[in-house]
Design goal:
Length: 212
């Protein structure tokens, strides 16, 4: 039923498609925003579609969710539905972003937990337009590979006092020391080039610190 609903939603006329309210974004290189199943060369699309929103990338894009920034101990979860005609490039959730004043821009600084269509995951940090791997691309059975039908990966970043822990479909696949990493900030999504997916939720849970 979920896939049938998505198919009906994707068939909506262009006039019925709108960008998701409150979201901000920045593409890695200039790219026009467009709607429709077939995008012009070099364009990309983000459209509000029940349930959630649909994203098709030309160039890579960082998207920041509306709402207050997260700090301290928190978790961010997202359900990402990858379509069969997608590239196998990375897509996932990010933390530590700081939006700029412009409503359609975000500062190029964040840490992202990504999965790929060929069953791998990675953790990357972007600062000032430069992306650095914190965990190299690694194959893991917990990551659902792209298939003939739409497949779902449920991703989580759990930010603790001492570490960042990464989960795919309920399985912990890796962790890194928090140290001085800039993880406080807004949360969102990172989608690399040529990816076609639907996002049903991006949820933040803020955890209370225990008294010392």
């Amino acid at each position: 039923m979920r896939f049938a609903a998505l198919a009906l939603t994707l068939a909506l006329p262009l006039a019925a498609q709108t960008t998701p309210e409150g979201w901000r974004w920045q593409t890695d290189r200039p790219s026009p925003l467009a709607f429709g199943e077939k995008l012009p060369a070099g364009a990309w699309s983000v459209a509000e579609m029940i349930p959630g929103m649909h994203i098709t990338t030309g160039p890579p894009v960082s998207l920041i969710a509306p709402g207050d920034p997260a700090a301290g101990r928190f978790m961010v979860d997202a359900d990402l539905l990858l379509f069969p005609n997608s590239a196998d490039n990375g897509h996932g959730v990010l933390v530590g972003a700081r939006p700029e004043a412009q409503p359609d821009r975000v500062a190029p600084s964040w840490i992202a937990f990504l999965v790929s269509g060929d069953g791998k995951f990675a953790v990357v940090q972007r600062t000032g337009g430069t992306t650095t791997p914190l965990v190299a691309w690694t194959a893991h059975d917990a990551v659902v590979k792209r298939g003939k039908d739409v497949v779902t990966n449920r991703l989580r970043i759990s930010v603790e006092r001492d570490s960042l822990r990464f989960f795919a479909n309920g399985t912990r696949v890796g962790a890194i020391q928090r140290g001085g990493l800039p993880v406080d900030g807004h949360v969102g999504l990172r989608i690399e080039e040529g990816v076609n997916l639907h996002v049903t939720n991006v949820d933040v849970v803020r955890r209370l610190l225990k008294a010392r």
